Amino acid sequence: MSTGPTFSFATTADDVATAFLDEIKGKDVLITGTSLKGIGFEAARVIAKYANRVIITGYNAKRLKLSEEAIKKETPQANIYSLVLDLSSFASVRKAAAEINAQPEPLHVLINNAASSFVDFKLTVDGLETQLATDHVGPFLFTKLLAPKLLASATPTYTPRVVFVASAAQGFGTGVDFDALENPDPAKYSKQSAYGQAKSANVLTAIELSKRSKGKINAYIIFTNIFEKENSIPTLQGFGALGADKKPNTEHPWKTIPQGAATTVAAAFDPRLNDKPGAYLDNSTVADNLLAPHSSDPVNAEKLWNITEKIIGETFVF
């Protein structure tokens, strides 16, 4: 990227927000999945210091309130709006999007951070497998419904952004099983495989969103290695990433939450990314070389987009 602040593995979200505070000022930002001790919360916390408004979401209203209170305790002047959102339910996604679309405030940045990881097989109310529904289909529908509001925030000098939080799991296996996405089968289900497919889907969606919007919306994907959810621990221990004490294996360096959220903030506001839509970021810098072939294949991206539109019963119009 062009000259400017230099970031590294140790860079924190506060570091990035301070570097780009002029870009954050005046912006309205929506971040999904903002429970305490997560990278979504950390991103919301630092962005709220400078933004015009930060919309935080979660499916649990009480936990969402705790996040709002924690942010306001640190930054009393922060303008926080709490939005109940269950990404595994089309009805909840539509209700939440309608609530935001009915408000007069603009929307400049959408950060799709919420995720369900390594869960046992279960169908959602809409008949989809839970991980792929929560991590891919729900965010796809939410982004589609909020797209007009994002587009309305564009100016001659500003292009709205959508950020998808992925992980190294985008490289697992052979990518999205398109048949399983439409026709989930418990006999063929693997929680590890489903998570990898969901993260690959995040990458493919960002790539295709950037392509189809033709410069009207810039989408980015970020790498993260932060896992706080208890149900993730056995799987990560199986990979050797966590020890029996639940602490990171020293052979696999893991970021703190402030470090993990840094790339989220960079993807949302670094002006050096303006001419790099669809980029994959690691350590707050472009790292497209880390993408697996199945997660960067334009044929896969188009196929996934078309199938997902079929599942939600709507076409994405710019």
From TrEMBL:
Q: Which UniProt keywords apply?
A: Oxidoreductase
**Which Pfam families is this protein grouped with?**
adh_short
Q: Does the keyword Glycoprotein apply?
A: no
Belongs to which family?
Belongs to the short-chain dehydrogenases/reductases (SDR) family.
Quote the protein name from its UniProt record: Short-chain dehydrogenase/reductase
The record's GO molecular-function terms, alphabetically, read: oxidoreductase activity
Entry annotated with the keyword Oxidoreductase: yes
